[in-house]
Amino acid sequence: MTLLELESVTASYGPVQVLDGVSLSVPEGGAVGILGANGAGKTTTLRSISGTVRAGGRILFEGKDIRGKRPEQVAALGIAHVPEGRGSFGALTVRENLRVGAYLRRDRKGIAADIEFLLDLFPNLKERYKSNASALSGGEQQMLAVGRAVMAKPRLLLLDEASLGLAPSTAKVVYDAIARLRRESGIAMLVVEQNANLAFRLVDSATVLETGRSVLSGTTAELKGMDEIRRAYLGG
Ligand SMILES: Nc1ncnc2c1ncn2[C@@H]1O[C@H](COP(=O)(O)OP(=O)(O)OP(=O)(O)O)[C@@H](O)[C@H]1O
Ligand SMILES: [Mg+2]
Question: What is the Cα–Cα distance from 2 to 15, expressed in whole angstroms?
Fold first, then answer.
């Protein structure tokens, strides 16, 4: 079943239109990538879903149009956004950041079990559990941002350039952990990534944005076989 469906989504910043017909769909439990160059509109697409940018077109979550809802309403429906730049609370510890992510939950045992699961998934966070987020490395901060989002028990995770600023080896560790998270939790994911090699470790299919428009989409295997994708996104 389809969990999220975008139909001809548009968005503007002031007078400047930056999305001009973005369409994609994420199946229940699936992982879909959004590829595209700098400024193509990837981040804006995620913002239009999470309600932080006003959008046109249709944005259906579990069959209902959520376009125009406020960010906290979208979050309460089960959509968690891990923004570019991560956004953890630097003055709070790893433990406190994870607990903040669970602030709407009341199932104490479930919260404890999810923290256990996340510390097993990201062993670095276990070592830094009582450290302030501001003292973490870039990779650890990315793990924490994902962890905090997962603590809300979302149905859908919106992930924006989790590899940004990380060494290639660290980025792989982060993506492989997120792939395991996906397998073991069943959380669906919409994954923005400029590095298609990384995205393809996680997603089953992807859509390519060019200047605010979906121009191409296909399964990971189909996209890997296309010359233009290889040239633009796979370094060969
Ligand atoms: N807050 C903003 N105000 C005005 N224009 C913006 C704002 N954010 C983004 N833009 C513009 O909107 C367009 C799409 O930006 P967006 O951030 O969605 O691209 P992106 O695909 O995520 O790029 P990147 O790969 O660099 O993160 C760009 O031209 C950008 O300059
Ligand atoms: Mg972006």
Answer: 33
195 lines ligand 1 (CB under 6 A): no
104 alpha carbon – ligand 1 mean position (Å): 31
Give the pLDDT of residue 234: 72
Domain boundaries, the chain: 2-233
**Per-residue pLDDT tens over the stretch 135-178:** 999 999 999 999 999 999 999 999 999 999 899 999 999 999 99
**Structural Rg of the chain based on CA atoms:** 17
Is-above-0.70 flag for pTM?
yes
Task: Please give the CATH topology (third level) of the domain spanning 2-233.
Answer: Rossmann fold (3.40.50)
